[in-house]
Amino acid sequence: MIPVYSVAQIRAVEAQENSKRGETSLMKQAASHLASTALGMLAENTSAEPAFVVALIGPGNNGGDGLYALAELQLQKISTLALQFHEQVHAEAAAAYQAAGGTMLDLSDGECELAKASLIIDAIYGLGYRPGSALPVLPANARVLACDVPSGLNPDTGVAEDGVLLAERTLTFGALKSGLLAIDGPLVTGDITVADLEFDFSSVEAGTQLVEETATRELLNQHRSWRDAGRHKYQRGVLGLIAGSDLYPGAAQLTAKAAVACGAGLLRTHVPESIQSMMALSVPESVPLDDDQIKEALSSSRRQIHGKGAKIKAWAIGPGLDGRTPPTGAIADVFASPQPAVIDASGLEVVPAGPSEQPRVLTPHAKELRMLLSRAGVKITPDEIAQDPIRWTRWAALAYNAVVLLKGPTSYIVAPNGDSLMVSHSAPELATAGSGDVLTGILGYMLSDSSLTGTEGLRTVPNRRMMELTACAAYIHGHLGRVTAADGTVNASRLIENLPKVMKQFGF
Ligand SMILES: NC(=O)C1=CN([C@@H]2O[C@H](COP(=O)(O)OP(=O)(O)OC[C@H]3O[C@@H](n4cnc5c(N)ncnc54)[C@H](O)[C@@H]3O)[C@@H](O)[C@H]2O)[C@@H](O)CC1
Ligand SMILES: Nc1ncnc2c1ncn2[C@@H]1O[C@H](COP(=O)(O)OP(=O)(O)O)[C@@H](O)[C@H]1O
Asked: With a 6 A CB cut-off, is 135 part of the ligand 1 pocket?
């Protein structure tokens, strides 16, 4: 997991480091990382032309980083050019670059050189960016390496100007800044690497933590054991799915197929009678579950998990349910059970607010989050959510005493105690009908597998573990989106086709 900080926090830590280690020495260290990243990108080029690196230089320390990096490249015999975007420039860094044989031109005099560059380093603005000024237009297909933050992206909020310099890669210094991951950030940064400048962050507390691939693997492996290979189907995860209606029969099928594709031991489906045969045909692995069997499953799980009954370990509730009809007695009983549940879509319209014994994850998108908050008596606008997603997600987490996953281009996972995780840089192609139903299937399966929850018998799954598994499911879903988008357009059925392959990559 990688901690994420606000600009103010990073500024405070940088000020300490500057006084301890000196601003120029830190800048040179940052520039060295930038030069190595540039060399790495140049090594990927297949062209026979000699490398030519152009840096766009702004008036502050971000420009200074760019100039020191160019100086290093010059010394490595790479041809470079610095194009000044402002009259003002970091004097010491400019002198160092010129001493290394580099040439500096005003952007207006050297703009035509941009088209010849094998790589453009964007060192116009970094942490000091203020919204509102014009930015240069880069040639189409330019390869751009952003120094710290793409120019035109607000490093705190993640809101980008229309003219933001789109990067293929962003090398950010010291720590992840919140704006790189929120709102427009994932669309403009390209791949992000954090250059470790050995800052001491002990005096500030990260706002949240990013869950990336390494963290996902570590979290998934936390409770796994070699003994898992010998489990029988009831131990591999039995999921109860309460979903579907005449109005939305497809959503239930997508969630069911996704859970089966994940490798669930057994899927029990509670769908309206009218769509049961459709479910049996399209998901032949699923076994129906009627109201009486739900009651029996709940009572046997209260006595002992290995007793008679459906042996359901977790529930997925909501995809395609008809939100206009109140939940039947059986669903209300499930909400009162101690088994973990993921609640999505129309399930969010009926999930009770207030304290509950059940470890729950609610998975709203922004509009559903407004609905949840409104049901709890809190009226907010979409803008308010966009400006402070973690805050409002936490309100819902508190009101419903549940972990809440706010879905969107960036996903936020927040617990009632305020702990939060985030998943970013997944695939924009996931914005397609039914992809949320697939996520519910993945998460439902994960909550049902005790090798992942780490709980056996009647011990409840702690909220922290619910959060971690939710983040893992969101990360895998994002990765699934990327894998699927790599060889065609994305739809929910194609996501499900690729799910077994992707789950295998994560040790399933
Ligand atoms: N210890 C440190 O403080 C380190 C700082 N580093 C670099 O320093 C950068 C921050 O440097 P600065 O604080 O000088 O900020 P920037 O270099 O991001 O830019 C600040 C300058 O740009 C001007 N500016 C900002 N937005 C503008 C706009 N829209 N129109 C016109 N002018 C605008 C400001 O007035 C200011 O002069 C970081 O992003 C990073 O690249 C790195 O060298 C790592 C170490
Ligand atoms: N622009 C985007 N980039 C990455 N992921 C996205 C984007 N838009 C939506 N998603 C993801 O796609 C899924 C959509 O789910 P949801 O809104 O419930 O749709 P549906 O109900 O149609 O299945 C969520 O997991 C969300 O995080």
From this structure: no
